[in-house]
Specification:
Elements (H helix, E strand, L loop, with lengths): L18 H20 L4 H28 L3 H5 L3 H21 L4 H28 L10 H6 L6 H4 L5 H28 L14 H13 L3 H20 L1 H4 L12 H16 L4 H30 L3 H4 L6
Length: about 325
């Protein structure tokens, strides 16, 4: 049966599921910005992508905040569903990358955007933790989306380091490493005990994102060896995802495919940074190949998800709350 279109009303049921692919586009723009020096690519490519996705993000943000203003309770309701948690976490994380995007053009504005995004993510964490503590035991089942919620602040250092927040960024990196390792370990144990339902399998791709971003932040802070370790771990995780691609995509296209976007872009960035640090030609090749793949894949997935939103069925498919 085909999902029914959402009820009339401007943005009254804006689905958080629009944000993962937008977050992925930000990552793609960042990867192209970094590639300018490694592959002698035109600077304009990355800046055009980042400029366009900033406008798309602001539109999506206004759409979602309009729903929240109409009925503030929808924020907590959206956090009760897996697509909602993933969407709202990436909404905050995309704001952190927006700060990094506009930093070269205005440090003051970038600082305000970064503070707002960090504050929003902290609020999200408090709401989620409260719900986990008060909810049933099965609600505390660890999923790959936990990376987005509990490791999500790792996306703030790319802008924070440039703003001089070194102590903050170092603390975030240290905390994120511990939490990410715990989530990977628990997820591995769960995978060996029980097979994930087919519709949720695309979220397995999220496991790649923290490996890549932790490596990127470590490199930016000067911890080159740690960056190399996470770069190698990212290669291992990506290799697993490629080998299991058929299993992961068995349910066919769905809004959960947004989970493929940002990890791939982040992987390209960490490969490029390791290559620039002299880690070897393999990293340069992988950085280039993954950048090409990201450029071909991310816009297509984004378009498909945005079309579901435009047709009014994305909210129904993802059980988004209504104002």
């Amino acid at each position: 049966m085909q999902p029914q279109a959402t009820a009339p009303g401007l943005f009254q049921r804006t689905p958080p599921a629009i944000f993962p692919p937008i977050f992925g586009l930000f990552g793609l723009g960042m990867a192209w910005r970094n590639s300018a020096s490694l592959f002698t690519m035109p600077d304009a490519v990355g800046e055009v992508i980042l400029g366009a996705v900033t406008l798309l993000y602001l539109f999506a943000l206004v759409a979602y905040l309009t729903k929240v203003v109409k009925r503030p309770g929808v924020f907590a309701e959206d956090l009760k569903t897996l697509p909602g948690r993933a969407g709202l976490a990436t909404m905050m994380m995309a704001g952190m990358l927006m700060a990094a995007t506009i930093l070269p053009y205005g440090a003051g504005v970038a600082r305000l955007v970064l503070i707002a995004a960090i504050g929003g993510h902290v609020i999200l964490l408090l709401v989620v933790i409260n719900a986990l503590l008060r909810g049933p035991g099965e609600a505390r089942h660890v999923t790959p989306v936990w990376h987005l919620m509990f490791v999500g602040l790792i996306l703030s250092p790319p802008a924070a380091i440039a703003l001089g927040w070194i102590a903050y960024s170092t603390a975030i990196l240290a905390g994120a490493v511990v939490i990410a390792l715990a989530i990977w370990a628990i997820s591995l144990r769960q995978m060996m005990q029980k097979e994930m339902p087919a519709p949720l399998r695309p979220t397995q791709a999220i496991h790649l994102a923290p490996a890549a971003v932790l490596g990127t932040v470590a490199m930016m802070l000067g911890y080159n060896t740690l960056a190399l370790v996470f770069g190698v771990w990212a290669i291992i995780v990506l290799a697993y995802l490629i080998v299991r691609a058929r299993w992961i995509t068995a349910a066919g296209f769905s809004p959960f495919w947004g989970a493929f976007t940002f990890p791939l872009a982040a992987f390209s960035t960490v490969m490029q940074l390791n290559a620039m640090a002299g880690a070897g030609e393999v990293f340069r090749i992988l950085g280039g190949l993954s950048l090409v793949a990201a450029t071909l894949i991310i816009p297509v997935i984004t378009w498909k998800i945005m079309m579901l939103w435009a047709k009014g069925v994305l909210a129904t498919k993802t059980n988004a709350a209504s104002a």
